[in-house]
Amino acid sequence: MTIPDYLDPDTWLRNVFSAKAVGRGGVIHRSARDVERIVGRDAFLREVQRRGFTLVENGDQLVVFCNRDPVRLIVQRDPPSLSQRAWPMGRDAHIR
Predict the structure, then answer these.
(1) Using CA atoms, how far apart are residues 70 and 91, in angstroms rounded to an integer?
(2) Cα separation of 96 and 76, whole Å?
(3) How many CB atoms are located within 10 Å of the residue 64 CB?
């Protein structure tokens, strides 16, 4: 099976980093799964570092701040406990 041109790793990276938001110093985000599947996490990290950008991960999203400004976390919350992640509305929420 032939890989479509737009999924070629070099082409994909070039397309991602040619977005208007990149040129304006904005923010782009991509699914971590797509990044790993198409170019690999290491190659993506190298490209972000080469450009001097900042990368954060939240859930399945990789978020790139396409400038060299510092990133400051304004509101931080304690991560939910494992039991809260497994039962987000409470263990008995489904019982009426």
Answers:
(1) 40
(2) 33
(3) 23
Q: Which two tokens stand for residue 3?
A: 């890989």
Closest CA to 47 of 33, 35, 59: 35
3-state secondary structure 40-94: CHHHHHHHHHHHCCEEEEECCEEEEECCCCCCCCCCCCCCCCHHHHHCCCCCCCC
pLDDT in tens, 37-88: 999 999 999 999 999 999 999 999 999 999 999 999 998 888 777 776 666 5
- The H or E element spanning position 12 is helix 9-16
- Report how far apart, in Å, the C-alpha atoms of 30 and of each of 45, 55, 83, 86 are: 13, 11, 28, 25
Q: What pLDDT is stored for residue 15 in this prediction? A: 95
Torsion from C-alpha of 16, 21, 22, 24, nearest 10 degrees: 160
